[in-house]
């Protein structure tokens, strides 16, 4: 084989020319990010939320730690380690990475070796193919084949570019899956804490209403209360009791959700964390122009634009000539030992150039279709960005509104608690009746439950804000953690 290559300098010249062509421009457009104009502000007017801000626009990839709850941190980490959805996303990313490696292999020559022994009988009606005149013989052949298709117009480069964009898309999908899992789990854990405390407060209110009904019946027996008074109190008790089953159902279902998100079965749901163990995080600074870089769904939509751009290049290169080079070296003989003797050596060199002349407009239509898909993916990318701006704006308005709602609920709770304490003191001093004190206690318990609901709602809004800002999964630290 070495002598063959030395005797054919034209092959080396052709290969050198191919390498020079490979360094040229690839067919189709070079990718450019679609132009976007980020707004100066995401809200129509400045939101003067009373919540403290951190002043930092970069979010930690472990943003849930801002709630200051160690058991919550452990639960999120367990979910990230064991979640089947994360495992599936990681496997899909590995597959995308191997697809890139496989496509890059087409840049190199393909080398194959073959060995073929065969038992043959030429028969008596034909001349014997062997010099010794034998018509029955065993023939051994072996061959080393090299084929190479130079990427003259960059079709393979565009294929690799598209697969690399697909690989990046899967990496971003993995980060998005982690963000979604963490956000859903944190929100569900907070929801269980809120529902548990609401249920406890409502059960206390039911107990107070039962005591009040018993006292009212005693008063009726003594002639100090009418049947209407008893019926009214009984109706209030039943109304309170009717609120319990929906709360308990939501609580159990949310606990099942927490267990599932942690890759546990429902019977292995973790203990409920007290709502008082959570602290309100400092809100991150919202910079609209940074959302394009921080949100994995926006970046994933951009990779789809890049894939579509590469597909245009692939379709364009398909309309241009394709060059193929081949070489083979081998031998054949009736005995294995003599296959590579000087008299039995075989070799060949070949080149092919294939250019489309007429295809009924198929290749041109494919190119136009790829261009249209590029325009569609660019429009979809812009739509994703607008939806992201909407998500953040919604979260900001929700945080602002629920902050004020929580303050009003806390004020109402404080006033109701003061009334109950005064009524209880007057009851002990003999200046107030038991029904009055019990009614005040029920009012405070209901106000407390409303305050708990408002607190849980605000915490949920903060989780939604972190998620809408990308959860820090694409910042520098998170990128360093990505394998």
Shape estimate: elongated
Mean pLDDT: 88
Oligomer: single chain
Q: How much of the sequence is in beta strands?
A: 5-15%
Helix content: 55-70%
Structural class: alpha+beta
Order of helices and strands: HHHHEEHHHHEEHHH
Q: Helical stretch count?
A: 11
Structure report:
The structure is a single chain. By secondary structure, the protein is α+β, with helices and mostly antiparallel strands. The protein contains 11 helices and 4 strands; from the N terminus they run ααααββααααββααα. It has a single domain (2-120, 136-184, 261-481), classed as Outer membrane efflux proteins (OEP), CATH 1.20.1600. Strands 1-2-3-4 form a 4-stranded antiparallel sheet, with no helix packed on it. Mean pLDDT is 88; it is low at 1-17.
Task: Give the arrangement of secondary structure elements.
Blueprint: H1 2-6, H2 9-22, H3 70-82, H4 84-104, E1 110-121, E2 136-148, H5 155-222, H6 227-261, H7 288-294, H8 296-317, E3 322-333, E4 345-354, H9 362-429, H10 434-468, H11 476-481
Antiparallel strand pairs: 1-2, 2-3, 3-4
Structure at a glance:
The protein is an alpha+beta fold and 483 residues long. It is built from 11 helices and 4 strands, in the order H-H-H-H-E-E-H-H-H-H-E-E-H-H-H. Strands 1-2-3-4 form a 4-stranded antiparallel beta sheet, with no helix packed on it.
Features:
Outer membrane efflux proteins (OEP), 11 helices, elongated, alpha+beta, four-stranded antiparallel β-sheet, disordered N terminus, 483 residues
